[in-house]
Protein: Interleukin 22 receptor, alpha 2
Organism: Acanthochromis polyacanthus
Amino acid sequence: MLSSVPVTLAPPAQVKFNSTDYRNILHWTPAPSSSSLQYDVQWKIYGEADWLDVDGCQGVQKLHCDLSTVTSEPREWYYARVRASSVASSSKSAWTLSPRFSPRWDTKISPPVLKLNLTEHGIVVRVKPPRALVRKLHSNLHYKIYVTNTSGKEEVFQMNCCSNKLTLKHLDHNSEYCLQAQTVVPLQAKSSVRSSEKCVTTL
């Protein structure tokens, strides 16, 4: 009687972190021609010996896993790894390792939402930053407000973390002003792209 030969599973591919505003999501792709697979995810701090299971990401069928909780220290470096398993054959693949990941250096910062109110005193500017960033960095967040008038001249204004609003005064009457906002994290020398442009015409 021939003994059954264990089926060797191909490991997952393209294991990598995608991080925005310190929400650190690990993504991977299944091996070609694989179906009905489950995945296990582990993580560790760079330099540590032990791999740790990620809660909620053992035996999952999805192709991503939120590691924000276990990779929450911005100054650390992390690794993650993923393997595939087949319930039908009870076989497991080799682990696939992610590139080394740093929340501080690798996360992308989102621009704030810009809100404008036109009053008789000028343009009142308010910014609403991403909630996740506020929770993480709060007092370390600053904002740049870019203002362009019809002549094409651009001015830049600064707002610190805790300013509720900025009022632009002494503006030309009946003129269009277009504004964009940018999130800045000075301590980490990081900034977002500019927000989409919003324009108003003064009274």
Summary: The first strand starts at residue 13 and ends at 20. Helices lie at 103-106, 131-137. The chain has two domains: 13-106, 113-202.
